[in-house]
Recover the amino acids of this structure.
């Protein structure tokens, strides 16, 4: 693999911010498809035409999306995120920032579900807790998968099999 073809992930990060600015409700689907395009389809997701196709596939208004990329508004939002990460002393990925009210806690690296639950309960002073015995109907599972467009087996297992 030619690493020179992947000089930076800044274009993808700015594209995600453009997706958020264009349609916050569709931004997670865009991010999921962007990751899938990079990791599964081996597409050069730093290329504008690839980002434009993903925006179209995920139901974003492509003209507005491209406008946010070209007018600097997406890059500005991405740089705000970078400044926030630096302020939180984020130096590696994955890093999760859990906040509730004025309480903030950072989880560095990969963590278990149980660690996330304990952190969320601690930061929220017990106001947010997992729903016990949550049952997803087959119809809900299908709708969830259809909304994303596709899911890896590992994602399905983590989301629905416990």
């Amino acid at each position: 693999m030619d690493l020179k073809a992947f000089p930076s992930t800044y274009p993808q990060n700015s594209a995600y911010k453009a997706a958020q600015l264009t349609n916050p409700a569709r931004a997670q689907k865009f991010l999921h498809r962007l990751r899938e395009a990079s990791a599964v389809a081996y597409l050069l997701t730093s290329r504008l035409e690839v980002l434009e196709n993903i925006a179209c596939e995920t139901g974003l208004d492509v003209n507005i999306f491209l406008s946010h990329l070209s007018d600097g508004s997406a890059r500005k939002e991405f740089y705000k995120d970078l400044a926030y990460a630096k302020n939180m002393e984020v130096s590696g990925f994955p890093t999760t920032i859990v906040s509730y009210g004025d309480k903030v806690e950072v989880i560095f690296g990969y963590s278990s579900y149980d660690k996330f639950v304990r952190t969320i309960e601690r930061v929220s002073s017990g106001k947010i807790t997992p729903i016990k015995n949550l049952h997803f109907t087959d119809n809900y599972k299908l709708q969830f998968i259809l909304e994303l467009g596709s899911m890896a087996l590992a994602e399905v297992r983590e989301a629905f099999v416990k």
The chain has a mean pLDDT of 90. The first helix runs from residue 10 to 22. The beta strands are 95-100, 103-108. Residues 34 and 147 are 15 Å apart (CA to CA).
